[in-house]
Design a protein that fits this description.
6-stranded antiparallel β-sheet, 11 strands, 26% helix, Immunoglobulin-like, 3-stranded antiparallel β-sheet, elongated, alpha+beta
């Protein structure tokens, strides 16, 4: 075995050009990997983080006693600080639900865009075609409040024309009452035709 190692070393000694070529190849590969890592950290795409808040609600009353439709002022926060590339959606819509029942909806036909290395806020005003909320849901919500339990809303945000990719859907939670208040990051997925989620989790321009 020692003789084989000596023969291998002698072979390289007898071929200095080969030794220099291997060394240069190794150094070039290492530098390329370092350069790619730096480029990717600066310009490569990383999906934003999303969360929602509901800072204001109007008309959240029992359907029979309400004088107007409920209005939910939703703020979608988009943390795009991890990349230099903008995150844009050509169109967007949102649905606000409680206990699986939709209470309000909103459309953003103009979409939105958040620049890279920034945290943006997207205001959404969701309302309903009806007046108030169903009595059973109202009693359930009030019962949770009286017991000091957490009252949560589900906010589903659908983004389309996301840089030419498939529609993207966020499933978000906003806490109206109780602890912890959040915010909670929204799960994020592409939606294939027919509304089925796909596992790919990126959408960048």
């Amino acid at each position: 075995m020692a003789e084989d190692d000596d023969d291998h070393g002698n072979c390289l000694d007898r071929r200095p050009c080969l030794r220099y070529f291997l060394l240069a190849t190794f150094i070039a590969t290492l530098l390329s990997l370092i350069a790619y890592g730096q480029w990717n950290s600066m310009y490569g795409y990383r999906k934003p983080d999303f969360w929602v808040k509901v800072p204001g609600i109007e008309g959240l009353e029992r359907a029979g006693a309400a004088a107007a439709a409920p209005v939910f002022n939703v703020t979608l926060r988009v943390d795009n600080e991890a990349t230099r590339r903008a995150f844009c959606a050509g169109r967007a819509s949102a649905a606000v639900s409680y206990a699986g029942v939709q209470l309000a909806h909103a459309d953003l036909p103009g979409g939105f865009c958040v620049p890279g290395q920034a945290v943006g806020s997207v205001p959404i005003v969701a309302t309903s075609d009806g007046v108030g909320i169903p009595g059973e849901l109202y009693e359930r919500m009030e019962s949770q409040r009286r017991r000091r339990e957490r009252v949560s809303l589900e906010v589903e945000v659908r983004m389309e024309d996301c840089c030419g990719r498939l529609p993207v859907t966020l499933w978000c939670t906003a806490v109206l009452h109780g602890q912890p208040e959040g915010p909670f990051l929204c799960p994020f997925a592409y939606m294939a035709k027919g509304g089925e989620p796909r596992p790919c989790l990126s959408c960048g321009c």
